[in-house]
Amino acid sequence: MEQQLKELKEQALVKINEATTVKELNDVRVAYLGKKGPITDLLKGMGKLPAEERPKMGALVNVIRESVTEVLEERMTKLEEAAINEQLENEFIDVTLPGRPARTGNHHPLTRVVEEIEDFFISMGYEIAEGPEVEKDYYNFEALNLPKDHPARDMQDSFYITEDVLLRTQTSPVQVRTMESKGGAPIKIICPGKVYRRDSDDATHSHQFTQIEGLVIGEDICMSDLKGTLSLFAKKMFGDEREIRLRPSFFPFTEPSVEMDISCFKCSGDGCNICKKTGWIEILGAGMVHPNVLRMSGYDPAVVSGFAFGMGPERVAMLKYGVEDIRHFYTNDVRFLSQFHRTEA
Ligand code: 2U9
């Protein structure tokens, strides 16, 4: 049996040396050291040996198994290393190749314009106020000096939910709510947000659009404060060379009321398609807060006065970026949106 064991060991060592791949070597391991291999068989057959021979033979089988295992593991390490080296050589990765650029998102053009307008007014000391889009008739109309029989309250023009509740048609109710909560204290706010009107959608109208309104209330607030503020605003949004002009207008919530034009940023007054050959572009409406509006929300028109203005950021964005159809802002076509890449760092 001793001789048999030595031959087995020699055979196993030869097979280990002959194996050239990890798989072949694993086959050798299973064949010689596995549960069904000859060494295990020999160990199982020990019971048939005379009792005095068993310890010696048992020790010999173990020594042989250990030395075969040791040689096999050494060889396995070498073959594994060789396999990895071969893989590294064959699967060369050129890390200098340029990668595919990741497609990044960017701010919606309307968001950019709204934030630009907000930044200007924040820099002038205004705070941002927000309020509900589903609003009471009182805050949307009544408190803004639009009595029950006013044509702007026509059911056909607004999305009414009940007789007294509607989707706000302007962000003015936010100002009214702020006035109520301030109890007569000075106010300097802008109110950006979505508004809703029953309009048929076309290139310049949308049933839902964005507004930014502003309200300043305090002692001695006068028309020249409004004019100075709007003049700075026009220069910030459309360039330092912009001039403004105020034309008389009418809004139920302001008296006097004005509409503001800026000198055309494309032709500087010579006349072009943007300013319809007039040299001026209408940007927003404004005025001094009507005494009725002040009174209804707890301010005494004999003590304080205020100015207010309102604009549509869609119109500002259309002029700034040359967008010809308002619906582009809402249809989220990436071919449109991807044209507005951030240029600042
Ligand atoms: C209060 C008092 C007065 C807000 C104002 C305008 C003039 C105006 C339009 C611009 C384009 C609406 O989006 S648009 O169609 N707005 O011309 N808005 S003054 O006046 C207020 C608001 C709140 C308490």
UniProtKB/TrEMBL annotation:
Print the keywords alphabetically. Answer: Aminoacyl-tRNA synthetase, ATP-binding, Cytoplasm, Ligase, Magnesium, Metal-binding, Nucleotide-binding, Protein biosynthesis
Top-tier EC class: ligase
Q: Domain Aminoacyl-transfer RNA synthetases class-II family profile spans what residues? A: 111-319
Free-text remark on how the cofactor is bound: Binds 2 magnesium ions per tetramer.
Q: Which cofactor does it need?
A: Mg(2+)
Q: Does the keyword rRNA-binding apply?
A: no
Location of this chain's protein in the cell: Cytoplasm
Give a GO molecular function annotation for the protein.
phenylalanine-tRNA ligase activity
Q: What is its EC number?
A: 6.1.1.20
- Keyword field contains NAD: no
Catalysed transformations (reactions): tRNA(Phe) + L-phenylalanine + ATP = L-phenylalanyl-tRNA(Phe) + AMP + diphosphate + H(+)
Instruction: Locate the residues binding Mg(2+).
Output: 255
Give the matching Pfam families: Phe_tRNA-synt_N (PF02912), tRNA-synt_2d (PF01409)
Q: Do you know which PANTHER family this protein is assigned to?
A: PHENYLALANINE--TRNA LIGASE, MITOCHONDRIAL, PHENYLALANYL-TRNA SYNTHETASE
Which proteins does it associate with, and in what oligomeric form?
Answer: Tetramer of two alpha and two beta subunits.
Entries under NCBIfam families matching the protein: pheS
Q: Which family does it belong to?
A: Belongs to the class-II aminoacyl-tRNA synthetase family. Phe-tRNA synthetase alpha subunit type 1 subfamily.
Name by which UniProt lists this protein = Phenylalanine--tRNA ligase alpha subunit
Name of the gene encoding the protein in the UniProt record: pheS
